[in-house]
Amino acid sequence: MRALVIDDDPAMLSIIASILNGLGYDVTKASNGQEGMEGLSSSDIPDVVLVDWNMPVLNGLEFVKLVRKKPKFDGLPIIMVTTELEMSQLALTFDAGVSEYIMKPFSPIMIQEKLQMVGVSVM
Ligand SMILES: [Mg+2]
Questions:
Q1: Centre of ligand 1 from the C-alpha of residue 70, in Å
Q2: What is the sign of the dihedral through the CA atoms of 24, 93, 65 and 55?
Q3: Pick the residue with more confidence: 88 or 64?
Q4: At CB < 8 A and 24+ separation, what contacts does 28-32 make?
Q5: Ligand 1 centroid to 10 CA: how many Å?
Q6: Which of 5, 37, 50, 108 stands the most exposed, by the fewest C-beta atoms within 10 Å?
Q7: What are the residue ranges of helices labelled H in 23-89?
Q8: Which pLDDT does position 59 carry in this prediction?
Q9: Ligand 1: distance of its center to the CA of 26 in Å?
Q10: CB neighbours of 88 closer than 8 A, spacing ≥ 6?
Q11: What is the four-CA torsion angle of 20, 7, 120, 87, rounded to 10 degrees?
Q12: For residue 16, what are the CA distances in angstroms to 29, 42, 55?
């Protein structure tokens, strides 16, 4: 199984990647939405994408909108990693095509549950 994780915070990126490694995923990392798009386009399509909302260059919401415009990524589960401050705007993420969201701070078990909710397997 493969996951693409996109976050501009290197510490957060490492935390999410190590949780996913523990669940049996090979992880590709990107530090903003544009790098994420490049990662998606230059390799096999991953089983799931976890994307931060607040990022420079191309934020998570913009990233999701771009991905959902491309038929080759139809059905790709995208989980938005977000903070309480953005709760009021959560409807925006679902309108854009986000499959599920995870609130920071999160636990490994929460990530596991969200992966199962979007229909991707965990070890
Ligand atoms: Mg961020």
A1: 24
A2: negative
A3: 64
A4: 28/2, 28/3, 28/4, 29/4, 29/5, 30/4, 30/5, 30/6, 31/6, 31/7, 31/55, 32/6, 32/8, 32/56, 32/57, 32/58, 32/59
A5: 9
A6: 108
A7: 33-41, 60-68
A8: 96
A9: 22
A10: none
A11: 120
A12: 10, 22, 16
- Per-residue pLDDT band at 86 (split at 50, 70, 90): confident
Domains of the chain with bracketed CATH: 2-116 (3.40.50.2300)
Q: Is the pTM of this model over 0.85?
A: yes
Distance (angstroms) between ligand 1 centre and the Cα of 17 equals 15
How many angstroms separate the alpha carbon of residue 54 from the centre of ligand 1? 4
- Is the pLDDT reported for residue 85 higher than 90? no
Residue-wise pLDDT tens digits, 37-70: 999 988 889 999 999 999 999 999 999 999 999 9
Residues 57, 34 contacting (CB under 8 angstroms): yes
pLDDT in tens, 15-45: 999 999 999 999 999 999 999 999 998 888 9
